[in-house]
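Researcher: Next sequence.
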Amino acid sequence: MRARLLALALLALALPGCVHQPSNANEGAQLTPDTKMTRELTHLPPPKGKIVVAVYGFRDQTGQYKPAPDSSFSTAVTQGAAAILVKALLDSNWFIPVERENLQNLLTERKIVRALEGPDKNAPSAVPGLLPASILVEGGVTAYESNVRSGGIGANYLGIGLSTLYRVDQVTVNLRSVDIRSGKVLSSVSTTKAIYSYEIRPTVFKFVNFKDLVQFEAGMTRNEPAQLCVREAIEAAVVHLVAQGLRDGHWDLKDERDRTHALFQRQD
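Model: Next structure:
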């Protein structure tokens, strides 16, 4: 009995040392990795002229929160989608985004600069006029569906087993371009991205003697980052928005021969 207790104590002490630590756990901060759509977005054929666009916001319209026990107050999708959209517009090399989300901060700084210029009202101002936008880009994260599909499989033979589980969520974003002169909606696109999660769990049951049973378990879970999926859906929406605008004649290519580009052919 004493030997059995000693063996259990040694096993309890040994298990924490066997915990697997990811190889990149101690890596420093790095740039956010590209998505599958980033390359297509950054390799669009150049436009005849870049379009000045304004983005006032890109709201989470899902009303979805993370399921318990994570938190009943944490949202399921990122609240920084507007920043992701602005970066996607810049990366496309088709648009010139102008600051509108924090416009009041910009106006305050411009007032400070003018106040420091001095009392001479006839002197030319060092602060040029703001760049007006010709297109307004609106939209939002319109849907987030949990457990769209889930399942798993497992097997056990002579005390050795392996089981896998998976779950699929889904996020949908909508993006539209609006002519600021007429208020006409020029193009509207909706893109959907699946979010995959899976778990692998091996188990081993072994009799170390006639009556003593030892059980070993391990496992690995991987969840696709939701913010990267939102980013990929937004980047895809920007690509489709460019393609629709070309097809409808709202903007033009620098070289008309680029209309045969494989990327635009896939959008038809």
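Model: The radius of gyration is 27 Å. Strands lie at 51-54, 59-60, 95-98, 135-157, 160-179, 185-207, 213-217, 220-223.
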